[in-house]
Design brief:
The complex is a heterodimer. Chain A is mainly α. Chain A contains eleven helices and one strand, in the order βααααααααααα. Chain B is of the alpha/beta class. Chain B has eleven helices and 15 strands. In chain B, strands 7-8-9-4-10-11 form a six-stranded mixed beta sheet, sandwiched between helices. In chain B, a hairpin with a 2-residue loop joins strand 10 and strand 11. Classes of the chains: A mainly alpha, B alpha/beta.
Amino acid sequence: MTATASTIRTDVPGRTASAGALAGFGGLLRKELIEWRRARRTWIVLLVSTAFMTLSALNSWLQSVLPADVTEGAPAPIFDPMANLALGVTSQIFVLAAIFAVMALITAERESGTLAWTASKPVSRSAIWLSKLVASSAVLWVVASIVPLVATVALVLAIYGPLPVLPLVIIAVGMGMATVLYIAVALAASTVVTSQAAVAGIAIGFMFLPQLIGLVVPNMELMPQSILMWTIVTAVGEPAGFLPALSWGVTVAALVAFSFRRMERMEL
Amino acid sequence: MTTQAAITTAGLTKHYPGVQALSDLTLEVPVGSIYGFLGPNGAGKTTALKMLAGLTSPTSGSATVAGIPIEAGLAYRQQVGFLGQEPRFFGWMSGREILAYVGSLYPAAARPSKARIQEVIDLVGITDAADRPSRTYSGGMRQRLGIAQALVSRPAVLLLDEPMSALDPIGRREILELMEAIKGDVTVFYSTHILDDVQRVSDHVAILDQGRLVRAQPTAELLSSFSRDRMRVVLGFATDDTAVALAAIPGVISAEPTDRDGTSRSYLLRIDADASAAVQRSVTRLAADTDLTVIDNSLVREGLEDVFMRLVDAKERAA
């Protein structure tokens, strides 16, 4: 209710809106990648995943070198290189590590106010979410899957014998797909609940859902959680169909769409 | 395109389930002003600022910054520099990195240069700490960094939510001086409940209570409007009848004895705001007619705190 004396121009060059639903994505992604590079959790995930996967693959060898009375009652050791590698991969430690590593990405920022601060800039909220998905998937694929896989492969080669290259590549891709799926679940959950424990609970519950409902759901292939097993089966040359890959694709797309919608409507 | 106000709101309303956080806020914030947004805790200040920052959607009503409606989203937010209450930044980033990060979120043509980042660092006085992780910053430094990140992309409007609330007196003074330093370059709209700060730096003020706008005026005009209806009169040799005689003067609503010192007595007169000059003349005449000595016969200068309390109290009484 005050009179004003001056005017301001709004046609200043460079003040046009950056078009698109992912405005600011480049800057946001760069920040996420730098944060992962500097964070201690990146190294913790790498060490834990590598230790767990290599130890899993080491089991058969340990059984064979330990005194018989120590390993009494244990199943007979397997010396097939691919089977021992699969033991490490199917332990899914890399999935658990990824869930725990990302459970705070949105909830902590929401609580501290940095999410609101970022959202007050000319960026789209979908871009904020997507930058976290892309950066954490890329980083965790490397530190929780690729590096441990390379270490495990080296161990398997040294102890059990040679491995074919193509199946290794397929397994590495499968681990990446599983990583993306569970990170997408955790980040989607973060747009609904505000506690880190709840995010982890939802993501881990999703992970174990096939075991819980496996008795009543006849075709487990339809569940996206089967993507890792699908890639391992494909890697060893068994017929595996395409349903798990389709299910994975549909689920990730649905999670992205759901999260975009939730982010845009979030009260910060 | 030109516009007359840096910020306009029309009927801005926010309703949460069971809570009417803000009702029908209609304001115009002049370009280049420092506009204080006053109110007690829970008055709706933060809600209003969050809506203006594009973080929360209004239930109804509209707002513009530099003539751009809030619905414009990205284009709107390019005009706004926002600093939330008790701001937290990424502690692992240095102050300089935070400013560069903020810049990277803008379209290329609006992205601040390194020189601009250094200019803002120098302006807010964090030059020596600019390359240290921001988690090592004191509260005052964090607040100054907050203003720097809001300023770096040359927005039309700065929205600051309680920028002084968590600071010690030195930190408060630094932020006030900073606000005075940037006055004119950018419009500053800030919320606070520290009335002294508003009186010191704000040229306009809006008072909010229980989600409703109570008053919005230039600060000086608001203060003077409340300084025309109270007079302090001190008379030597006054008697018990003097209060009755003062109360009988045309334009005087009430005359209340407030103090007694030797032979002199003090009175607080409530008067019609338009009758102050006539009442002053009548008091002088009364003193002359009854052999009293006029020691003081002046309008009471009210501070913003008094005005604020009177406005809020009056609203609560009316409610």
